[in-house]
Recover the amino acids of this structure.
């Protein structure tokens, strides 16, 4: 890449799939001879790979653009990702932004910059988001995230992801196995299989998600495999049983609920009801008692009453789940939900969100208590003053004093104490 571009900084807003794509773009810049720096440093090019799940995600992006212009007023700023796909016209009017790149073209950003220096807008129409690029992170963290699926064919009434990401499409099982084995040879100890709708892997082909997991179990030897968020209706008993019997698939699930009210679930056009969801959680805990289960939940969806919020709260209190990701409902253009009335007042949404976040802390503390009498294995992600930190198989943060281990080691540990969502212990 020609002068004056010598350095680049990239930043991910949003999901693990975005993170894999950012990592691939970074590699391309390095191959072109650019040096990578952190997002808070002076750079010639800044690339923001954005999210648009909530309005707050858009606000974060715009704030960061202003910050970057203060760091380097002459920087070339590129916006890509879901915000760019959904709001390309809006972003192209921002004089601080030099290039807007849509979903179909994001993995070609270095090449686009070379060819389109004077172009303000390179976006993709919804119908044109068709290709799939297998992407994975490397050199960023001790674990690698692999994008095995992209897009979504669901039409949840609150969600813009199908517009931003296109239809469901996937890689081939053989290609994913090759990537896992390549990462294993490079020294990675853990991979995370990720997708926009992971359980829909293979849709429209003769492959499916269970077959993918089965083949990775059979044809790879990497020590740890995690799966990212998976829809409850796509989490089959076959998948649960495979993870239960495997020594390498980690006992860690993230299963969106969104609401504990059947009426609200129907309005959201979710593909399950409360009984189905509860049975799925109970099935997991019956055969994998130590499994960690994270839950996505939305509060303040239009027409949600106090009683319906309480249904959600009580359900999550009763189920054996480990932590919550709480989203305060945010109106999104081009969704069905934006026209539903009555709206829930913002202060009521905020109050409900605080209640569920407090519940999440309680659930997390109870899950940790249940794991205090069991030895674990952690993958060391960092070391500071001889204190190692990493995560257990079932995704509990763990600290241990040791001067004999290093980052990326798998270490057997024994719990001794816990505080603020973290277990402290010793090596065994």
């Amino acid at each position: 890449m020609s002068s004056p571009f010598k350095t680049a900084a990239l930043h991910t807003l949003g999901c693990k799939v975005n993170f894999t794509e950012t990592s691939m773009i970074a590699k391309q810049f390095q191959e072109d001879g650019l040096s990578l720096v952190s997002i808070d440093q002076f750079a010639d090019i800044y690339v923001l790979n954005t999210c648009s799940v909530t309005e707050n995600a858009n606000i974060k992006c715009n704030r960061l653009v202003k910050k970057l212009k203060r760091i380097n007023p002459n920087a070339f700023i590129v916006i890509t990702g879901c915000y760019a796909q959904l709001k390309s016209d809006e972003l192209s009017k921002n004089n601080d932004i030099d290039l807007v790149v849509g979903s179909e073209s994001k993995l070609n950003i270095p090449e686009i910059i070379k060819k389109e220096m004077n172009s303000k807008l390179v976006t993709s129409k919804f119908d044109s988001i068709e290709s799939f690029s297998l992407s994975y992170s490397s050199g960023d963290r001790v674990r690698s995230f692999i994008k095995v699926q992209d897009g979504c064919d669901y039409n949840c009434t609150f969600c813009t992801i199908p517009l931003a990401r296109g239809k469901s499409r996937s890689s081939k099982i053989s290609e994913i196995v090759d990537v896992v084995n390549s990462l294993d040879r490079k020294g990675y100890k853990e991979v995370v299989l990720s997708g926009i709708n992971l359980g829909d892997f293979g849709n429209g082909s003769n492959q499916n998600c269970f077959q993918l997991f089965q083949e990775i179990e059979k044809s790879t030897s990497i020590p740890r495999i995690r799966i990212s968020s998976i829809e409850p209706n796509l989490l089959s008993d076959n998948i649960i049983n495979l993870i239960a019997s495997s020594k390498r698939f980690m006992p860690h699930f993230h299963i969106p609920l969104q609401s504990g009210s059947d009426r609200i679930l129907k309005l959201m056009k979710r593909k399950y009801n409360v009984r189905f969801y509860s049975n799925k959680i109970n099935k997991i805990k019956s055969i994998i008692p130590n499994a960690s289960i994270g839950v996505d939940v939305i509060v303040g969806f239009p027409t949600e009453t106090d009683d319906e919020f309480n249904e959600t709260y009580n359900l999550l209190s009763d189920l054996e789940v480990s932590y919550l990701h709480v989203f305060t409902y945010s109106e999104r253009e081009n969704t069905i939900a934006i026209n539903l009335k009555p709206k829930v007042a913002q202060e009521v949404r905020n109050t409900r969100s605080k209640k569920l976040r407090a519940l999440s802390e309680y659930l997390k503390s109870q899950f940790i208590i249940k794991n205090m009498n069991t030895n674990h294995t952690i993958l060391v992600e960092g070391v500071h003053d001889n204190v190692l930190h990493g995560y257990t198989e079932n995704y509990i943060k763990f600290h241990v004093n040791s001067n004999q281990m290093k980052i990326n080691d798998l270490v057997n540990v024994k719990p001794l104490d816990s505080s603020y969502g973290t277990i402290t212990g010793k090596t065994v």
Q: What stands out?
A: The longest helix spans residues 346-370. Residues 132-250 form a domain with the Transcription Regulator spoIIAA fold (CATH 3.30.750.210). Residues 42 and 71 are 6 Å apart (CA to CA).
